[in-house]
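[Meeting: bench + compute handoff]

Bench side (C.D.) handed over the final construct sequence. Compute side (W.E.) agreed to return the predicted structure before the next meeting so the bench team could plan truncations. Sequence as handed over:
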Amino acid sequence: MDKHSVMIVIAIVAYMAMMIGIGFAVSKKTKTSSDFYLGGRKLGPLVTAMSAEASDMSGWLLMGLPAVALMTGLAEATWTAIGLAVGTYLNWLFVAKRLRVYSFKIDAFTLPDFFSKRFGDNKKVLTTISAIIIVIFFIPYTASGFAACGKLFSSLFGMDYLMAMIISALVIIVYCTLGGFLAASTTDFIQSIVMTIALFVVVGFGEGLINGFENVFNNVSSLPGFLNIFQGHDVATGAVGSYGALPVASTLAWGLGYFGMPHILLRFMAIEDKNKLKLSRRVASSWVVISMAVAVVIGVVGYSLMKEGIVPAYSDASAAETIIVDVAKFLGKFGYIPALTGGIILAGILASTMSTADSQLLAAASSISQNLVQETFKVKLSAKKSIILARVSVIVISIVAIFLARDPSSSVFRIVSFAWAGFGAAFGPIIICSLFIKRTNKVGAIAGMISGGAMIFFWKFVIRAVFAGTALDIYELLPAFIIGFIVTVVVSLLTKVPEKEIVDTFDAVKAELNS
């Protein structure tokens, strides 16, 4: 290993050590299962905002989105970013404060727990179904984060992919099992800063290598449809296609996913002061817009770097997910300080993947240890044993995710898109109905949750497979979300009116919000 590579390693190791150190420090404050899963509702507004968005963006921001822009042009990447930006803002505007007030009122500290108490589900049917959905979709989601880390080290140092992925996963496991939600949120805040630095450094350095943005855009302007948000250009094959109203609506539907993301919704529930959520909303929305815009520009710059031979010629979007890694490696050729900067960029990729994987691990672990074991199966545990079970759950889920991530050819973007759709369709309609429609009842919530989640599988693996290339070949989140919402409302209206106690609680929450 040359001296420049050593500088990169120093930056990465220092970053990973800092994350573990935070886990040790916060572990002293984690004494109950509520502390482990919700941080005792003690998050400040900035940590709430940035940890929510860092845990949301994942390796998708620094690897998946630039790769899509690089290999297919602006259309899909831009409309996806717009959908996510709008979804982010609306989620903070309409859901955040209501969920914080409601979850506090009914003393719920996990999402399945909220559903159960909101609808008076004493038999824990909603708890069980939502916990199972969380495990089903979060394990592959977590696996995608582990895969991104494995690709990083494998590409950078020529390490065996599996070994690289396991090492990075172990770091995440250590600070998660030690400090729980508070550790994850604190590290996410730091990780969001590192991610931001990485994004801007890559854009600046890449643009400098091509001698200005004028040359960058001259290179891509020769590609028909590449800079047109209503067309697409497959760089690998040269094929050009239209991007009309239906694909645009399908891609914008990414924004619907925010309403059902457990790891984001938990941040809303955990803020210390509900009145500071306005500040959180402004910070979070601004960061999302800026970071995604920069990520898309990285993809455009990446094509010029590929054309000039500065980075390898990528065969598809999955291969192009290493664009930022390749730029960071190239930095090492210019001396020790640039090499150290390259290490910070790579730490940014680690930050983006770790910030999501830790939140996903905790959400999945809470579903198993708290919602299934203790609530569904009525296993009574002391506070100490509950913490132990939570930490064991994190480890078990991580092992399964590592197994699923063993294939280095898997696409981070495609895995994330499927899991995102699953949560958006299964939980999004229920969250909206539970917070805004008083008439929604337990039966409607169960029916909507099952239909929305099931429609994701049916639409992706049946409808899109049979009708590929037609108007029905759209992102599965859009039809599944619509179906889930309609089923929830219709079934609720056709079945028994909610009990008086549930209605009274809804009215009390509404009154508090209006006061």
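W.E. noted at the follow-up: The chain has a mean pLDDT of 84. C.D. will use this when planning the next construct.
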